[in-house]
Automatic annotation (TrEMBL):
<dbReference type="InterPro" id="IPR003660">
    <property type="entry name" value="HAMP_dom"/>
</dbReference>
<dbReference type="InterPro" id="IPR004358">
    <property type="entry name" value="Sig_transdc_His_kin-like_C"/>
</dbReference>
<keyword id="KW-0902">Two-component regulatory system</keyword>
<dbReference type="InterPro" id="IPR050351">
    <property type="entry name" value="BphY/WalK/GraS-like"/>
</dbReference>
<dbReference type="Pfam" id="PF00512">
    <property type="entry name" value="HisKA"/>
</dbReference>
<keyword id="KW-0808">Transferase</keyword>
<dbReference type="GO" id="GO:0016036">
    <property type="term" value="P:cellular response to phosphate starvation"/>
</dbReference>
<dbReference type="InterPro" id="IPR003594">
    <property type="entry name" value="HATPase_dom"/>
</dbReference>
<dbReference type="GO" id="GO:0000155">
    <property type="term" value="F:phosphorelay sensor kinase activity"/>
</dbReference>
<dbReference type="InterPro" id="IPR005467">
    <property type="entry name" value="His_kinase_dom"/>
</dbReference>
<dbReference type="InterPro" id="IPR003661">
    <property type="entry name" value="HisK_dim/P_dom"/>
</dbReference>
<dbReference type="GO" id="GO:0004721">
    <property type="term" value="F:phosphoprotein phosphatase activity"/>
</dbReference>
<dbReference type="InterPro" id="IPR036097">
    <property type="entry name" value="HisK_dim/P_sf"/>
</dbReference>
<dbReference type="GO" id="GO:0005886">
    <property type="term" value="C:plasma membrane"/>
</dbReference>
<dbReference type="InterPro" id="IPR036890">
    <property type="entry name" value="HATPase_C_sf"/>
</dbReference>
<feature type="domain" description="HAMP">
    <location>
        <begin position="13"/>
        <end position="66"/>
    </location>
</feature>
<feature type="domain" description="Histidine kinase">
    <location>
        <begin position="74"/>
        <end position="288"/>
    </location>
</feature>
Amino acid sequence: MLFLFLTLRRLASRSIQPIIDITKKAEIITKDNLNERLPSSRYKDEINSLSVSINHLLERVEKGVLREKQFTSDASHELRTPLAILKGNFEVLIRKPRPQEEYVEKIKDGIVIIDKLNAILDQLLTLARLQKNASVDEEVDLIFLVSDIVTSISEQYPNRSIQLENKIYEKLYINANEKSTAIIIENLVQNAIKYSPVEKTIKLILEQGTDGIHLYIVDQGIGISDADLAKIYQPFFRGGSHELGRINGAGLGLSIVKKLCDIYKINISIHSEKGKGTTIVLLFPPAILHS
């Protein structure tokens, strides 16, 4: 009996050892060492499955934390640079008396920098709101919304040619949020304007496809290289082209667009050729459509 008792105790001890090992490892994992992983069992049992699942969770958490750190670092850099320029301008002004014209010029430069900071902060707040929660779905008249955006932006840029070609001749609604959908389309059209010569036309084309409704936003601008296309949705990414240095922007617009598209199950694809232009396609799938 004693032998049987000792044998059973030994087997029980051995069977719970993987749990003890996992518990000990889990207790030492903190936000500072998220790269650590739980030990796997030699046997393909339930304990091993649990360990693997937790390791996958840790991997996702680690990637999320790293993205957050990178985002914070990029945001700090984007805010620090214009503030440093603004500080430098003011320091120049107080060193010695200057002509009034120079004061006016430096103050105007300062206002431009403040406007840029405000734009960055607005986009950062939008991103923060998107990460917190999504907007409530509602019925959105897609054709009316696109038409209204084209009219509004055309009034904002009277010297630009923005055309809408609607190939859908019936009322069409999507399950989304009107404000969020407007942000997606407006950001894409504003980008097309920003990166295209004044004399070039920007086209929006609405048409029915077998896989849903397509909205094409077509420009004849500077285009995007294949290398930059792979990073286009990263926050603060603006590409390596020398033309971009002369164009104002924080590199947050497409990050916001992508997050909203993911929330509302809208597929976005970008086709571009350097020096020739860009076509962005928004696909509204049947699952979110109704007439």
